[in-house]
Amino acid sequence: MIAAAGGTVWGAAHRGRQTSHMAAITSIWLILWTYMDIAHPYATLCPTLDGGVLSVLSGTTRPLTGREIARLLGRRTHSGVLDALNRLTEHGLVDREEAGRAFLFTLNREHLAAPAAELIAQMRGEFFDRLARQVDSWKIPAVHVSLFGSVSRNEGDTNSDIDLFVVRSASVDHEESRWREQLDLLTRKVQRWTGNPARIVEVGEEEIPRLREEEPPILVELRADAITVAGAEAAALLGEG
Q: Which candidate, 1, 71, 78, 114, has a CA 20 to 30 Å from the CA of 208?
């Protein structure tokens, strides 16, 4: 049963043995809202290529060529990157120096706008830090919490949700109100931080042996991509496969 209200969709609890890849999932909560490009969070404030260039330069003090910056951004050509570098150099935010037949670029960290550029570059790390702090504040600790899916692979975009895998202690009832409130608050916090939908895949600790036995596709994904936020590492908890 799924009910919708105020832009929020709640997935009903899944009970009993099922044959689908969601067999051991006891609940999925989904919040729908406006989205951020998870793989390129700087695009929220600087949607042009300039944002990507600043993100790369903010992350290093080593001078880089336009080709190196393009490669780090995953671009096949560097012409657009050079255009962005020329614009940023004109504004004084990027320094350019000759190196033979090439030019090397660095962020001018004395520029008034440099702190803003550095902050944009740190958005992904800030999200992970906020997530960890939120989970650490729970009055009822989880056995395990991790990020998985496109966000953990740094492949997400504005259409991506944020997938969280949560393992509930065997001593905590699925319907425990304080536990549910924690999950509810987490989904709302993620939406407020990013604008992206949060999807919590929750299982009970007692269901882990059955998950390991049945090997649903989600288990393979977790082993490969999960970024642990709290508790035991995903590989140790779920087995090596």
A: 1
pLDDT digits (tens, 9 = 90+) for 139-161: 999 999 999 988 888 775 656 78
Q: Are residues 193 and 226 in the same domain?
A: yes
Q: Are 167 and 179 within 8 A, CB to CB?
A: no
For the purposes of burial, counting CB atoms within 10 Å of the CB of 111, is it exposed (0-12), middle (13-18) or buried (19 or more)? middle
Which of 87, 120, 153 is the last residue in one of the domains? 120
pLDDT tens for 81-107 read 999 999 999 999 999 999 988 999 999
Q: Are 53 and 171 members of one domain?
A: no
Report d(CA 1, CA 18) in Å as an integer.
16
**Domain boundary pick from 93, 120, 147:** 120
Number of domains in the chain: 2
Distances (CA, A) of 198 to 93, 112, 131, 189, 241: 35, 35, 12, 9, 27
Backbone angles phi, psi at 39, to 5 degrees: -75, -25
What does the alpha-carbon distance between residue 228 and residue 59 come to, in Å, rounded to a whole number?
Answer: 23
Q: How does pLDDT run across 39-98, given as a tens digit for each residue?
A: 455 445 555 788 889 989 998 999 999 999 999 988 888 889 999 999 999 999 999 999
CATH code at position 87: 1.10.10.10
Mean pLDDT of the chain: 80
